[in-house]
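Why should sequence recovery work at all? Because a backbone constrains its sequence more than one might expect. Tight turns favour small or flexible residues, buried strands favour hydrophobic ones, and helices have their own preferences. The token representation captures these environments compactly. In the example below, the structure is given first.
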């Protein structure tokens, strides 16, 4: 039954059917399905297929946008269920998270932020298309332990390096740990630019965040 629902959620994203995505997400919650699995095994599979069709030239920007809108609508419905565990925990650390300058992709970054909140972190999500100085302002305002920079384009991943350079210039590099992620980012790129850690997905981002603040991992949602 779960797989059938995951497939339907993926299909709603592939077809860019926001109304279907919304009603399926509500139905999945009613049936007691794991919201994170609905996202990773359903919605994410769908948006990956949209990306592949776009790369093949079978989909164009409008389909990319409607697929993303369908996914965001469903995630909004799953979000409260993802957050249930986090509301009763002490704060493990503060993290400023955003997508780097020139990059509008925000779904993965937002999901990582939600999962960190659900696991006891105070998350300051500054949004997408944010410059190094906007990250730095948020770090100063919040006294963050970690800064997380997401990049989905091969062209914008270089902004993660610029952020680290700007942190050094601002005298903040030894005060804040840097976490990087996003589809084109790799462990070796993370090492190359001198970040403190790379996470491939939301689940590994939680493990990494706990390691960076030196707190034993205790995930609420798997
Ligand atoms: Co764009 N796009 N897009 N797009 N888009 C990609 C990234 C692309 C791979 C599609 C493709 O060609 N196959 C391609 C990039 C190619 C490249 O650089 N190599 C691409 C392109 C080309 C573009 C445009 C240039 C298209 C155009 O205009 N001609 C344009 C660029 C706009 C810009 O940013 N300046 C563009 C625009 C868009 C939309 C705005 C329409 C839309 C985003 C909507 C939104 O976010 N509000 C969009 C979408 C939806 C995609 C794809 C299809 C899906 C991205 C997504 O949301 N994935 C994407 C193809 C793909 O990735 N397969 C594609 C789901 C999400 C849950 O996964 O974001 O990977 P992801 O996040 C994961 C992990 O990466 C990780 O955890 C998350 C959860 O597991 N993670 C982190 C992410 N951030 C992290 C941070 C961390 C740790 C882990 O720590 C801080």
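From this structural description, the recovered sequence reads:
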């Amino acid at each position: 039954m779960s797989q059938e629902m995951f497939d339907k959620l993926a299909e709603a994203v592939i077809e860019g059917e926001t109304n279907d995505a919304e009603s399926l997400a509500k139905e999945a919650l009613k049936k007691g399905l794991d919201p994170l699995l609905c996202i990773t095994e359903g919605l994410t599979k769908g948006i990956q297929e949209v990306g592949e069709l776009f790369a093949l030239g079978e989909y164009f920007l409008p389909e990319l946008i409607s697929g993303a809108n369908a996914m965001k609508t469903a995630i909004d419905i799953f979000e409260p269920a993802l957050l249930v565990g986090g509301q009763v925990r002490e704060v493990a650390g503060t993290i400023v998270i955003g997508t780097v300058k020139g990059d509008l992709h925000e779904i993965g970054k937002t999901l990582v932020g939600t999962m960190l909140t659900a696991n006891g972190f105070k998350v300051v999500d500054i949004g997408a298309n944010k410059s190094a100085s906007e990250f730095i302002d948020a770090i100063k305002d919040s006294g963050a332990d970690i800064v997380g920079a997401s990049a989905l384009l091969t062209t914008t991943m270089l902004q993660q390096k610029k952020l680290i350079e700007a942190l050094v210039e601002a005298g903040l590099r030894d005060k804040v740990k840097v976490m990087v992620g996003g589809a084109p980012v790799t462990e070796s790129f993370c090492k190359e630019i001198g970040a403190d850690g790379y996470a491939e997905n939301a689940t590994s981002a939680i493990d990494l965040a706990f390691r960076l603040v030196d707190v034993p991992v205790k995930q609420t949602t798997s």
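A few observations help interpret the result. The chain has nine helices and five strands.
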